[in-house]
Write a structure and sequence with these properties.
With 116 residues, this protein is an all-alpha fold. 72% of the residues lie in helices and 0% in strands. The protein contains 5 helices and no strands.
């Protein structure tokens, strides 16, 4: 009895990976073993960097808030501490957006916090 290898499914699986690595440099795009390794490593980087992106954005928001409160004679840590004291629950993303795009509203928040 002849050996069954299911070449159709195997070829389809390989074609799928080779299609996903299209545009890469050198043998990464057309040699099966290299392309498979390249694709798997790329998926690892993508998984890792989806989490790193969140860190990067939080850092950016903190930098923007710090730069926006400095003219009012405050540092970022003092500002956030006073926000917590006054039970103002606005996240850093919104604060950074207000500081950048709506300075009047951000100024109102800073003045509210700096009272007392």
């Amino acid at each position: 009895m002849p050996r069954s290898v299911n070449a159709v499914a195997s070829r389809a699986r390989r074609k799928k990976i080779l299609k996903l690595t299209r545009g890469q440099f050198g043998r990464r795009k057309n040699v099966w073993t290299v392309a498979k390794n390249s694709y798997e490593k790329g998926q690892q980087y993508a998984y890792r960097d989806r989490r790193n992106k969140k860190r990067s954005f939080r850092s950016l928001w903190i930098i923007r808030i710090n730069a926006a409160v400095r003219p009012f004679g405050m540092s970022y840590s003092v500002f956030v501490g006073k926000l917590h004291q006054h039970n103002i629950e606005i996240n850093r993303k919104v604060l950074a957006d207000l500081a950048l795009n709506n300075p009047e509203a951000f100024k109102a928040i800073v003045e509210k916090v700096s009272q007392n």
